[in-house]
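Aim 2, interim progress: modelling of the flavin-adenine dinucleotide-bound target.
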Amino acid sequence: MLRSAILAASRSPQMRTLVEKLPPTRAIVERFVAGEPLDAALAACDELTATGRRATLDHLGEDTRDAAQAAATAAAYEKLLEALKETGLAQHAEVSVKLSAVGQFLPQDGEQVALENARRICTAAADAGTTVTLDMEDHTTTDSTLGIARQLRADFPWLGVVLQAYLRRTEADCRDFSGPGSRVRLCKGAYQEPASVAFQKKDEVDRAYVRCLKVLMAGEGYPMVASHDPRMVKIAGELAERNGRKADSFEYQMLYGIRPEEQLRLARSGATMRVYLPYGQEWYGYFMRRLAERPANLAFFLRAMATR
Ligand code: FAD
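Predicted structure of the complex, ligand included:
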């Protein structure tokens, strides 16, 4: 119930205005978001890579209905990738992109605009010597996002996609995307989805996650295990071993600010560990999904409000 309410609020412009105005919000947001300017993101990225972790940077934004805004987001990614190249961080850092931030929902030719903007970003990534992963949004976008990914992969075979274990379709998608060279980030899924398309109970989602992991680990691609769940991390390690995978043939991924000690432990153990690093002004939707995920995150937020 609470999760549904917070996820509904994550898409409400009125709630957004209210939450953004709350005095303690900024300090709490900083727990999950690197900051607003590019420099803050580069500094956080530098800190992660200095401790043996990799990064995937997300220039925050989603759901744009404005073509100029979509183009500006693509330009921001080009600038980010140029900076990663110049600083040498591109060796350890890639970018994550939401297609809805680069035009997918535009009323006219949205998919085409998103494809072209994503192509600009992929071209800049290739020039910087790094890669791009397309984030996955709610289930109404899955076919469109995977379709755009397939088109881009013809020119950028290293393009990563995200699959969400809570969707009933995902085990089959894992099979489709487990071929040679395929990079797949497997997460549980962060949106409010109906029972017709998604498992609703936590144990059902967890079991689906393990089934998908089995497919990806046995496949010929590069699985990216995106979870903070200690059980999933353990099972991923066991499956990697059972399938004879070396540390450079799969990776673990966690979100910035979540379980940093575990991130460091995995990196020190020799595993490849990548941190999803969001930055920029458009933090509202991302932040609300983090609150919805975990009562402790929400409690932290409410406590901070109460002490002001
Ligand atoms: P949960 O089921 O939320 O938690 C399981 C257990 O993990 C908890 O019981 C606890 O032991 C531990 N845990 C979880 N959170 C914390 C915490 N804050 N502190 C301490 N322990 C914790 N979702 C999408 O829909 N699309 C995407 O493109 C996408 N990209 C992602 C990229 C990355 C790198 C990651 C890590 C997640 C991404 N997600 C994405 C979010 C994802 O779908 C989940 O909503 C989110 O990761 C929570 O699921 P979980 O697997 O961590 O486990």
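The radius of gyration is 18 Å. The chain has one domain: 33-282.
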